[in-house]
């Protein structure tokens, strides 16, 4: 492990002399433009590593929150002419001064500012080429799904120029220069396997905004002989510095025009793949081995950006982001393994806080997917996590989604689900919806699926919550149009995907598939019909909101994992993959969590996932869709990964918070 002793430096922002090392940590799980995650004083409830922590800071409050109406606002910023997405607003201050507020997600992502742990929702301590012991503290304001920070004084001290122009906040940063780049390799201190970590130091002439983003796996040129390896490929990471570099420095890292024809393992690949200056920005492309993640810190006097490659780059943090909403992350131990877990701890009884299913579909339909960031922003959620399964080909839901007592999609295969109401009560269990069509002479026909993309032989039902129309999912379906409890038409579906049939607003469609098409003769036009509907377990009937996924992990503090019983494959159960989860705690809180790859390895199996959820305090827990779908959103940003590595999803659980 690297030497952690603090080095004294001068603060370019707070102007304090003889202050100590500042660390900005990029999480191993690759949050968007991964910036730094610092830890402070809160004792974790789970098993955690004792490394990568910080002393209790002495806070310097920079400004107080204002309740004045906004003079201007928008959702775009320009940083030295480069257009970026970021929410901002301006308010009148004292003595006629205009105060500028930037969403905390944009502030972290684009400026490289680190957020320190804090127990106060009204203020956020930060570090940026400054002291860990006396950080600046910015006032916060929660508005329309974002938390805004008052950056007025910070920007003035850093010599930034701010100018609002319509929807855009222009930020002009003084020119900076990368003076030198130094590299070294050191053992990481991890006993398994024998990782070697590297360090890169960028010497800067002044504090400067920077970003770090995760790229794609690096492919190997097939023309170059390589030794066979089962290790996943290296991955590209990109560091962007808002400043230029000397041409002589750039030349040192120019890519080879023709790579040597040697076996790939003969010599180590260079860590810095390329260094270039584009539009007055220095762009550094890194080759990062599997299992490693950049961990970033800034130093002052002189100003430096230090990048370490580590298998355990995540640093614990505990931030009261808003009343009733805590942002937490830490390594959680499971035997000899250590897993990075990022979660939101939510008080469902907090005044003004509600939870709802959210969907990323096209208008008036259940078809569609979108990035979780987009789904959350369009619904004005302050926080969200991806949730249920879906078919990636036709983008239809595969599991329960119930919102405000309406089934957007019905449950399938007796899989796990979570139900809740607006009073902060929850129920987790395995869910089946039992619907029966009752025809004359007490004829009773089972309806297997409601508003679902899951298809089998039998009868399915589609209501107006599915959309304005239904398009057959299998060949040769027969569709019965039911209006005001009476069959009014029979339609031949023909070939799958070709013919859209309107869903009546005063009724529903019955879809007869495969052998069930023979039932059509028993339900001629004019037949009076009715529906009975109930859930199993009956406990689900009491809740207006339900989200299904599975498998169920924990119930009443006992691990109850039965993946095959919920019709998941054994391979799915034992696969080591990134996972999402939702759970309730003994205190009545709700946790939504993302669990990423263990230090130096792959993600958890379902059994490990269940134990990890218990370790962070869950007494009832449900596995959600995972892998590339795993996404944890808060206030305009993904907390757990770069958005370019997250897949589009169909739905999620959204957290809504009205300022009190």
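^ structure tokens above, recovered residues below v
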């Amino acid at each position: 492990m690297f030497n952690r002793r603090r080095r004294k430096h001068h603060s370019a922002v707070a102007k304090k002399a003889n202050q100590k090392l500042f660390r900005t940590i990029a999480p191993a799980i690759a949050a968007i433009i991964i910036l730094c995650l610092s830890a402070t004083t809160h004792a974790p409830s789970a098993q955690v590593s004792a490394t990568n922590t910080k002393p209790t800071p002495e806070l310097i409050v920079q400004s107080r929150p204002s309740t004045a109406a906004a003079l201007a606002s928008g959702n775009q910023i320009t940083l030295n002419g480069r257009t970026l997405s970021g929410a901002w607003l301006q308010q009148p201050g004292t003595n006629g001064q205009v105060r500028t507020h930037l969403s905390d997600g944009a502030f972290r992502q684009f400026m490289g500012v680190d957020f320190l742990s804090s127990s106060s929702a009204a203020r956020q301590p930060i570090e940026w080429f400054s002291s860990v012991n006396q950080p600046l503290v910015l006032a916060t304001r929660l508005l329309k799904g974002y938390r805004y920070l008052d950056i007025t004084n910070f920007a003035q001290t850093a010599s930034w120029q701010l100018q609002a122009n319509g929807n855009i906040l222009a930020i002009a940063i003084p020119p900076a220069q990368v003076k030198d780049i130094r590299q070294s390799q050191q053992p990481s201190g991890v006993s398994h396997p024998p990782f070697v970590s590297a360090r890169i130091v960028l010497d800067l002439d002044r504090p400067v905004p920077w970003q770090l983003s995760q790229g794609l796996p690096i492919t190997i040129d097939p023309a170059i002989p390589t030794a066979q390896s089962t290790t996943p490929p290296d991955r590209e990471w990109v560091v962007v510095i808002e400043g230029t570099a000397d041409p002589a420095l750039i030349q040192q890292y120019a890519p080879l025009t023709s790579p040597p024809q040697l076996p790939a393992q003969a010599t180590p690949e260079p860590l810095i793949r390329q260094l270039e200056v584009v539009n007055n920005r220095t762009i550094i492309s890194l080759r990062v081995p599997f299992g490693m993640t950049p961990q970033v810190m800034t130093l002052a006097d002189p100003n430096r950006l230090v990048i370490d490659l580590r298998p355990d780059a995540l640093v614990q943090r505990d931030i009261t982001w808003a009343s009733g909403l805590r942002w937490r992350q830490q390594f959680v131990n499971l035997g000899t393994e250590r897993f990075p877990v990022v979660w939101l701890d939510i008080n469902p009884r907090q005044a003004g806080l509600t939870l709802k299913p959210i969907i990323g579909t096209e208008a008036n339909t259940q078809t569609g997917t979108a990035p979780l960031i987009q789904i959350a922003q369009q619904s004005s959620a302050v926080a969200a996590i991806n949730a249920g399964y879906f078919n990636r080909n036709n983008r239809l839901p595969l599991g329960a989604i119930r919102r405000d007592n309406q089934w957007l999609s019905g449950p399938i295969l007796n899989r796990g689900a979570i139900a809740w109401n607006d009073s902060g009560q929850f129920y987790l269990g395995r869910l089946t919806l039992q619907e029966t069509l009752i025809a004359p002479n007490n004829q009773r026909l089972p309806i297997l699926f409601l508003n679902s993309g899951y298809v089998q032989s039998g009868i399915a039902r589609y209501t107006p919550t599915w959309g304005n129309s239904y398009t057959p999912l299998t060949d040769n379906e027969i569709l019965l149009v039911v209006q005001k409890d009476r069959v009014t038409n029979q339609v031949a579906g023909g070939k799958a995907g070709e013919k859209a049939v309107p869903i009546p607003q005063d009724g529903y469609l019955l879809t007869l598939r495969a052998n069930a098409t023979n039932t059509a003769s028993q339900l001629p036009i004019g037949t009076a019909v009715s529906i009975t509907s109930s859930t199993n377990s009956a406990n689900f009937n009491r809740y207006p909101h339900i989200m299904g996924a599975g498998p169920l992990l924990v119930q009443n503090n006992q691990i109850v994992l039965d993946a095959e019983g919920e019709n998941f494959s054994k391979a799915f159960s034992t696969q080591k993959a990134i996972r999402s989860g939702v759970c309730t705690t003994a205190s009545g809180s709700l946790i939504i969590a993302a669990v990423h790859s263990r230090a130096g390895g792959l993600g958890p199996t379902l059994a490990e996932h269940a134990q990890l959820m218990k370790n962070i305090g869950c007494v009832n827990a449900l596995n959600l869709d995972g892998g590339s779908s795993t996404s944890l959103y808060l206030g305009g940003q993904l907390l757990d990964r770069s958005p370019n590595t997250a897949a589009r999803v169909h739905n999620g659980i959204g957290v809504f918070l009205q300022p009190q």
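Residues 323-429+541-657 form one domain.
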